[in-house]
Design goal:
By secondary structure, the chain is α+β, with helices and mostly antiparallel strands. Helix content is 57%, strand content 9%.
């Protein structure tokens, strides 16, 4: 009787605990999936910064619409009518700065040669953080954009032209400002709204990419894949698309760019084919690791690529053609190690087999 009495609550306890554990696992899986989707969707190639092109921040627009009070909504509408929005939401500066329309800033993506990134968390902080733009509370010291968007122009002295604008700091602020405006005046034409920006003039792409890296040091941690592509962009490699990369590759003078080029080709392939499982940065990292492993095991490979850059493209294409087939093996692996390293190990083996290259054990 004693054992029967003890058995019932234990059994009942287990039956109650198991669903909880199952739910916890499902919650964790959903969180990981959301994180993956966010990483996949917040990277892009030459996508206009128009808010309509970034559906991953749509929940922030809904939140802004619900949180904004009528007083703030009314003041924004008045500022749009009087063309004084910049004065209302930007701090005063002692120098004369140039203004750009939202249309110009959104279209600045056409001048970029590296992967774009939008961080929904950073956008949320601009809107709802400690000093966020949206609040009817007096607890915040200032509902103004505390730092102007920075845009750069490349001066082409030889041809007498300037290339730009290129946003070097403030992409997330630009998205946040559009959400603010859309929440206040959903039916208004916002393309001609003027935003004051800080402008700088740089000599070449290398300086632009260096400026973007340095500008992000204090706001977000840049992934290694992005750092590599920024460096490669400074050397003249255009990673905005496969065709642009292949066209610019022969002009690159540094062999240090080849791993980034290989990684970018693998990443672009994953984006084009809509492959899941790994994040965009992980696909790029797997490509970089694959190239470095092949280069290390095959002396003179980089010299051969110097003579014919199409060889690098062929190697990368082979890796791309094996991504889909390798994914199940990577996802099923229970061994320790990052997914991108597991993917690279498979790609190295398959590329080496096709091109009769050596592989280090």
């Amino acid at each position: 009787m004693f054992f029967q009495q003890q058995k019932t609550p234990v059994s009942g306890g287990l039956s109650c605990q198991l669903p909880n554990r199952s739910r916890i696992r499902r919650v964790r899986q959903v969180r990981l999936l959301r994180q993956l989707v966010s990483t996949l969707m917040t990277t892009a190639i030459n996508r206009s910064y128009d808010l309509a092109n970034w559906p991953e921040v749509s929940s922030l627009l809904e939140r802004a619409t619900n949180k904004m009070c009528e007083q703030q909504r009314s003041s924004i509408k008045s500022a749009l009518t009087d063309n004084t929005f910049s004065n209302l939401f930007q701090v005063q500066t002692g120098d004369q700065r140039r203004t750009f329309s939202l249309d110009e800033l959104c279209g600045s993506s056409s001048h970029e040669t590296s992967q774009q990134r939008i961080d929904p968390k950073a956008v949320s902080d601009v809107l709802f953080g400690t000093d966020g733009l949206i609040s009817c509370s007096n607890s915040k010291r200032n509902q103004r954009l505390m730092e102007d968007i920075e845009v750069a122009f490349i001066l082409d002295i030889v041809n007498g032209i300037e290339i730009g604008p290129i946003i070097t700091s403030g992409r997330n602020r630009l998205i946040a400002l559009q959400i603010l405006l859309k929440a206040a005046a959903p039916n208004a034409a916002l393309q001609r709204v003027n935003i004051r920006c800080s402008t700088i003039h740089l000599a070449d792409r290398s300086q632009v990419e260096s400026r973007i890296v340095s500008a992000n040091m204090g706001s977000r941690k840049m992934a290694m894949a992005e750092n590599r592509e920024r460096f490669a962009g400074g050397q003249g490699l255009n990673t905005s698309s496969r065709d642009a990369l292949i066209e610019s590759l022969p002009t690159v003078a540094s062999k240090k760019v080849y791993p980034a080029a290989f990684g970018a080709l693998v990443k672009l392939c994953a984006i084009e084919r809509g492959l899941n499982g790994l994040t965009i940065d992980q696909y790029a990292a797997s490509g970089v690791t694959t190239y470095n492993a092949l280069d290390k095991a095959n002396k003179g490979l980089s010299n051969r690529i110097d003579q014919d850059t199409n060889l690098l493209v062929q190697l990368a294409d082979c890796a791309c053609n094996n991504l889909q087939q390798a994914l199940p093996e990577v996802m099923a692996s229970t061994s320790r190690g990052a997914k991108n390293h597991k993917m690279a190990k498979i790609l190295v083996r398959r590329v080496a087999e096709q091109f009769q290259l050596s592989v280090q054990s």
